[in-house]
Amino acid sequence: MIKLLIFDLDNTLFDTHKQLRVIVYEKMIHNMQQAGLTPEQEKVIREKYSFTSFIILARKLHLSEKIKNAGIETYKAIDLSGITPYDDVKLLKKFQQKKILVTSGLKEIQLKKVKILEIGSLFEEVICDESSSPENKQRIFADLMKKYELNPKEILVVGDNADSEIAAGNNLGMITVQILRMPEALKGKADYHVKDLYEVKEILEKIK
User: Fold this and answer.
1) Residue-wise pLDDT tens digits, 1-16
2) What predicted TM-score, i.e. pTM, was given to this entire model?
3) Which CATH number fits the domain 4-14+84-207, given the four candidates 3.30.70.260, 1.10.3720.10, 3.40.50.700, 3.40.50.1000?
4) Residue 125 three-state SS
């Protein structure tokens, strides 16, 4: 029986790609170019940014502090006022299990998103992982499992990133659900693959 649901935020509960990244993306690239971003680094960012945290990309590409800060400061200046959740987020109110939101990124930005989206009250806890490290995400999940005195098969993880929350859940033996909101989303290893939260609801009913 599933007793705890762990949710990701970006591209899981709201369309980050269309609502934010499309708007700020070129500004970030431009400002990072001015700070010294190379064509090779730019190519990787353009290929991976829709599916990978900027902090993770910056680490993998060994971006200088100047380049990284140019990208971060551009992102921090983005207007978040118009963001809205996916329509199916209303289903969370019907899920009887405890729900935890674990989101990666800059804490001030991620918490601001939660506030504007008006979804904070849907969760027992909202946890922001500023490290954007898969290893740290796994540690957070393990701590939650211990805190709520649950075994792995009593926890279901829902997120879009196969290399982050899904990998963390898999490594701990939790039940993982990769939500693929975008046609171009990269399908990874998970117990289930779904298009929306209606399918998550079906999975919960089936497991019960």
Assistant:
1) 999 999 999 999 999 8
2) 0.88
3) 3.40.50.1000
4) strand
The 10 Å Cβ neighbour count of residue 120 is 12
d(CA 48, CA 83): 22
3-state secondary structure 160-193: CCCCCHHHHHHHCCCEEEEECCCCCCCCCCCCEE
Alpha carbon distance 35, 65 (integer Å): 10
Q: 42 near 61, Cβ under 8 Å? A: no
CA-wise closest residue to 167 among 153, 182, 146, 188? 188
Q: Give dist(CA 45, CA 81) in Å, integer.
A: 26
How much is the pLDDT for 23? 77
Length of the chain in residues, anyone? 208
